[in-house]
Every structure is written in C-alpha cells, then in structure tokens.
Amino acid sequence: MVSVRRVSARPRLVLALICVASFLVYLDTSITPVAVPAIRADFGAGPSVAQWLLDAYTLAFACLLLTAGSLGDRLGRKSVLLAGIAGFTLASVACAAAPDSGALIAARGAQGVFAAAVVPVSLAATAGLFTDARARARAIGVWGGTSGVALALGPLLGGLLVEGAGWRSMFWINLPIGVVAFAGLLWTMPRVAPSGGRRIDVPGQVLFVAGAAAVTYVLIEGRMLGWDSPVVLGVLAGGLVALGAFVAWQRRTSEPMLPPRLLGIREVALACAVNFLGLFGLYAVLYLVTVHLQEVLGLSPMATGVRFLALFGCLGVTAVLASAVAARLGTRVTMALGLACITAGLLGLTLLETGAGYWAYGWALVLLGVGVPLSSGVVAIQAMMGAVPPELSGTASGSMNTFRQFGAVVGVALAGLLSPGPGTLWVTFAVAAAGALLAGVLVMAQRPAAARVPERV
C-alpha cells in the first residue's frame, strides 16, 4: 500500500504544472474579447472579423473536444498533453506575429485545435494523479479553481496589456507560460501506458467539422454577403448535408464519436441544452458589451476590463463554490437558480444602451457571472451522471462540454446578426434571456431518476 506522503509529494508538483497549462488555455478565453476593437482598428477590419477572432478559437475547440479525449486514451495522456501545450504556445506566437487579420484568425483556429487537447486530457491526468478519492476530488477542485482564476484575470490583464504594450503582447505572454508548463511536465509527469480507449471516428469528425464550420460561416457572413448570395446558399446547403451525413454515420458506425443513445438519455440531453444556452448568453455579452464600451462609449481597454471584473470575478468564485451549493440544494434546484440568475442578468443588460451609468447594469453582470457556473459545468455533470452508464461517463462529459462551446460559437455569431448596430443590443440579450428561461422551465419540469442512481454509482 502506498503511503499518503509518497502519493502527495510528486503529484502536487505535477498538478501545479497541469494547472499552469489549464490556466494558459482558459486565460485566452477571457483575455481576447477586450482586445477585439484594438485588433479591428489596427487591421482596418470589418465587424465579421471581430466575430471570427472569437469564433475561430471556440469552433475548433468545440469540434475536437471529443476526439482529443479519445486520443489521450489511445496515445497516452502525457504525449497528447505535451503536444497540446506546445501547439497552443506556437499558435500563440503565430497570433502575436500575424501580418493581417486572415493570418490572425487562422492562428486563433490553431489555438482552439490544441486547446481541445489540453483541457480534457489535463482533467483526466489530474484525476489519475491520486489514488485516494478525497485527494482526487481536491485535485479536481484545484484544477477547476484555476480555470476560474484565469477567467477572472483575463479581462483585467488583457486591458492592461493592450493599453500598455499593444494587443500583440496579449499573445506573447503565452510564450513563457507555455514553456514553463511544457518543460515542467516533460520532466515530472509520469508516462502511463495508453489504456486503448475508443477508436477515433475519423469520418464522423470530418463531417462534424465541415458541417459546424459551414453553418457558423453562414451565420457570420450571411448578412454582409446577402442571404440569397450563391456563396451563402451553397455553403449552407453543404453544411446541412454534412450534418445530416454526420447524424446518419453516427447511427451506423459501431464506435461513434457522439453515440446517439447518449443523447437519448433525458438527463444528458437536458445538461447539453442548459450548457448550450448558458454559454450562448455569456459569449454574446462578451462580444457585444466589449464593442459597445470601446467603440460607442470610447472607453479604454483597461476601463473595459475593469467593468468585466464583476462578471468574471463572480464567475470564478461561484465556479469554486458550485459543487458545495449543489450538495446543499440539490442539482435540480441549483441549476434552476443559476438559470434564473442568467435570465435576470441578460434582461438587466438591456439597460446598457439607455445611457445609464455602470451601476445601473453592473448588477446584471454579477448575476450572469453567478448564474453560469450554477447552471452548467460541474453542476450539470453531477445532474446527469447518475443516469449515464459507467462506460459512457467520459463521453457524456465531453458531449456536454462540446455543446457548451457551441453555445459560445452561436452566441457570438448570432449577436452580429441580431444586433448589427447601436440601439439593437437589447434584441440579442432578450433572445438569450428567453433561451435561459426556457432551459429553467425544462429543468424544473424534469423529474430526477432517483431509482437508478444507486446502481450507477
């Protein structure tokens, strides 16, 4: 039997380095929106470029999450994690050195590809560091807390860097962080033999990427090119065909990327829907509020970052406390409470364009920051795991995170469509609030399958 001392000494160092890698990826999620107006001004780019700067990253991240997790099992977690860190760091350098907006968007997409390798594999590696259940739970809590801290620091750090050293510094900062994480894990992380895992569903992955990218392109570029444009109609038709072929292939293949029977479990379907709708509102807010504060009100990147502290600070703190709240109130009530906060927060943000000061809508950012972690993430995972067969638990978690990221993709894409200019922000916020309200109703209408929980745990 391994002593506690022997188990905790080296794993703690490895855990710290894994958290550095996780911090790197999550920092880029919240640091980039603050820089979007500066990047647009530097390149003389249009509104769609701003959307692609956010969605190129999130789209690649969302499309590859499930496959990246399987790669970690088949090729070894250490190899895939190191490749993800190295690739993300190099892609960040490419972002910093980008000569034009096209190159920057491509590099952002590359960041998303490698982020998809870092996030699920770093979580799996964290869970595998400790044999004691309580130590493992604490380690996962630290991992989750790190992401919360990164999200909270992103807007403030982004504003400081953009204002002090230009937007490129926001990507250069990833270089030393990435080097530390890569070098440290290369020397300290034990190499565990691959467990085999599921076979990679290459046709499914290709169809999924093609369909999702095509639909995102239409949502972002359709208004500018014209909805009756041959390019828009052709891309839309191709995307719908690819998504249809993906669904057909998932039903036919023996090892699907997204097992149809998984989404047939009501708890999983609900968790995926809640995560989609929660991130839809959050990312729509990130995009629209940033552009409004800087391009309409003339605030600096630093002042914008300070205003987002209410949102991301509450999001980070609540992410750490969410499991404890769910343990006290139950997952169903906690998710409903979170969705109520999101709904109220989004409705409150309709006051943004009334000319009222920050305190008239700052409370709405607080509610949004509290609501997202309470309704999604760890709480949603807990809500669905009792109904999921053990052999599908990892895929269920990955599926939920995929829907979560697609909520972000669609939120940014639709924001440009629903709110094309000043005076229209309220439309996106109202639509997102309606979605969160619908999700809350579905959660409260859901009856927990208590009888099955003891058999699965």
Tell me the number of structural domains: 3
| Unreliable residue stretches | 1-9, 450-457
State the end-to-end distance. Answer: 25 Å
Main structural class: mainly alpha
Q: What is the C-level CATH assignment of the largest domain?
A: Mainly Alpha
Q: What global shape is seen? A: globular
> Sheet bearing the most strands, described?
none
Query: What is the helix content?
Result: over 70%
CATH superfamily of the largest domain: MFS general substrate transporter like domains
- Number of helix segments? 20
Radius of gyration: 21 Å
- The percentage of residues in β strands lies in under 5%
Element order, helices and strands?
HHHHHHHHHHHHHHHHHHHH
User: If you consult CATH, what is the topology of the largest domain?
Assistant: Growth Hormone, Chain: A
Main location: membrane
Membrane topology: Multi-pass membrane protein
Keywords: Cell membrane, Membrane, Transmembrane, Transmembrane helix, Transport
Organism: Amycolatopsis thermoflava
Explained architecture:
It is a single chain. The chain is mostly helical and 457 residues long. It folds into three domains: 199 residues, Growth Hormone, Chain: A (Up-down Bundle), CATH 1.20.1250; 53 residues, no CATH class; 197 residues, Growth Hormone, Chain: A. Helices cover 81% and strands 0% of the residues. The chain contains 20 helices and no strands. Helix 3 packs antiparallel against helix 18 and helix 4 packs antiparallel against helix 8. The chain is globular. It starts with a helix and ends with a helix. The N terminus and C terminus are likely disordered.
